[in-house]
Amino acid sequence: MRVPQHVVDARRRDLASLIQTTGWLPIAEVCARLKVSEATARRDLDALEQSDVITRTRGGALGEFNQRFPSFRERQRVAAPAKRRIARAAAALIAPGSTVFLDAGSTVYAVAEALIARAPIGADSARPLTVVTNSLPVAELLADTDGITVSLLGGRYLRRLSIVLGPESVRHCADWSFDLVVLGAEGADAAGVTNSQPDVVAVQRAAVANARAHALCLDASKLGQRAPEPLFAWHQVQRLVTDADAARLDDAGIRILPSRLITA
Amino acid sequence: MRVPQHVVDARRRDLASLIQTTGWLPIAEVCARLKVSEATARRDLDALEQSDVITRTRGGALGEFNQRFPSFRERQRVAAPAKRRIARAAAALIAPGSTVFLDAGSTVYAVAEALIARAPIGADSARPLTVVTNSLPVAELLADTDGITVSLLGGRYLRRLSIVLGPESVRHCADWSFDLVVLGAEGADAAGVTNSQPDVVAVQRAAVANARAHALCLDASKLGQRAPEPLFAWHQVQRLVTDADAARLDDAGIRILPSRLITA
DNA sequence: GCCTATATGATTGAAAGCAATCATATAGCC
DNA sequence: GGCTATATGATTGCTTTCAATCATATAGGC
Question: How far apart are CA A40 and CA A34, in angstroms?
Fold first, then answer.
């Protein structure tokens, strides 16, 4: 049964402040306090998470978390299976002994996870490995992993995204010579690959400029999307790792040589 | 396979502090960080919950949950008042419009806290301000503060200390021209000021080399201590900010010009 | 007043987390 | 050096949580 809008809004405000003061609230508690069904409780929590007021955890929700660790939402989000497959395929491109740059962004974060999953030692291993990144979650994840050395780029620290950016980051890329640069993007259509922030693109370009090879990871949800800042035209993409098959790409107007396409 | 007791204890201490700083940690993350199986992760979490250090939630664990309700006042009491006085005195050295380097370490972290506490605007304010640091907690704390721009040095990421270090960090210091460098140390005796890690000292030296001035923050508990790596002889110290009075310093065999001493 | 968009609660299959148990390797003690 | 207590990781069956779907009632716009 539908209920007036103001009631819904008020309830969600109450819930938000409830969670902020408690710090953490299990779902059952939410139902009891608001006297709603579990389904509605979940919907309310989803709505609050959408507007970045709270952070969902399995079985409840955290308040105050986004302010302190905004990147966590991304880290926490269960990697969609497609993303994990892409990540595994991208990680397979990395040869032992190489120096790789890992971009910021959730898909590339999944690549870092996949790197940990790959055999730590032996013929199938990617290690030893030097990883350079401007993503704090990636650095955080890989640091202290045997056989992996992690370097952070320097630069302006953006807490909201948990990354470093800016002219210093771009400059520091020139200190390196990457064997592979692994990139993500937010949009991909007939015109090319796009991202939302100019600063992010600047670092991506700088990394690619100092690399022997690069690979772009794109999950199918990005197809047809377009972000303001152009990163690549399609002919510039050396390797595209995606879960979308050739037909799907074709639908989106994307033309790429089969030899450059890796379907995960 | 059984493992030495001290290893288990150390791991659990690490886990506790990890959870305290993250706020919340999902089980999978715990496994990844500690490189243990899920079973062991659960056992560790159970143990920590037993001793009331953390609170378990379904799928993870909360830190700070138990400490959340004790008021701020009480939390402040825990932070040594001496350290806060030192921090305030050091923060007072910072002029608006300047570029300062903040070292890693708990005393200097307190300086960052004091910077936030200083008037955000007006005659008494230190802002606008550019802060450069190799300490992630400092960057985390100051980022997104109005009037403060935060830059991280690049370099090898050391998770255990949450800092970046190494030759890149040293090199990147040369990109800057600091108005003031704020340093901490672990030991101070007649011979001079010492720190435990050569890499840390290397960055401290590089920062000082590119600075017009520097200040050393030392709480009295460090007097008489000695760490392996020499940082300064006393005649090299431009400004010493400490809670120890001149007599106390004299007892420890420390000779420093009164004009260079700031007693907080 | 009628119609449609939407907020709700129920249901269900799938995924994730959990507690218990067991084999194994080794730290710690005699 | 040998014995035992214990920390670990794997496995299994069970419980909880989740996402998706559906029917229903009603708010809000015409």
Answer: 10
How far in angstroms lies nucleotide D6's C1' from the CA of residue B26?
Answer: 27
To 10 degrees, what angle do helices B38-50 and B27-34 make? 100
Asked if residues A12 and A47 have their Cβ atoms less than 8 Å apart, the reply is yes
pLDDT at B194: 92
From chain B, the residues in CB contact with A171 under 8 A are 175
Residues in chain B with CB shorter than 8 Å from the CB of A129 are none
How far does the CA of A70 sit from the C1' of C11, in Å? 35
Task: Calculate the alpha carbon distances from B97 to A166, B68, B94 in Å.
Answer: 20, 36, 9
- Prior bond to B81 cis, omega within 30? no
Asked whether the bond before B228 is cis by omega within 30 degrees of 0, the reply is no
> How many Cβ atoms from other residues are within 10 Å of residue A68's Cβ?
16
Q: How far is CA A173 from CA A68, A93, A165, B194, in A?
A: 28, 21, 11, 33
Give me the pLDDT at residue A194, please. Answer: 92
Per the model's pLDDT, the better-predicted residue between B189 and B51 turns out to be: B189
Give the pLDDT confidence of B231-249 residue by residue, as tens digits.
999 999 999 999 988 888 9
B121 or B252, greater pLDDT? B252
Q: How far, in whole angstroms, is CA A225 from its chain's centroid?
A: 16
Protein side of the strand D interface (CB < 7 A) = A 1-6, 26-28, 39, 42, 46, 56-60; B 1-3, 5, 7-8, 11, 35-40, 43-44, 58
- The secondary structure of A183-196 as a DSSP string is EE-SEEETTEEEES
Structural domains of chain B ordered from first start: 5-68 (1.10.10.10), 72-263 (3.40.50.1360)
Say if strands B163-165 and B155-158 run parallel, antiparallel, or are unpaired.
antiparallel
Convert B132-166 to b/e letters by CB count within 10 Å (16 or more is b). Answer: bbbbbbbbbbbbebeebbbbbbbbbbbbebbbbbb
Per-residue pLDDT, A3: 77
Structure tokens at B248: 């106390």
Sort B193 into a burial class: Cβ within 10 Å, 0-12 / 13-18 / 19+: buried
Strands A240-242 and B24-26: unpaired
- Give the model's confidence band at A68: pLDDT under 50 very low, under 70 low, under 90 confident, else very high: very low
Tokens representing residue B189 in the block: 């005796």
A45 CA vs D30 C1’ separation (Å): 33
DSSP E strand boundaries for A10-81: 24-26, 54-57, 60-63
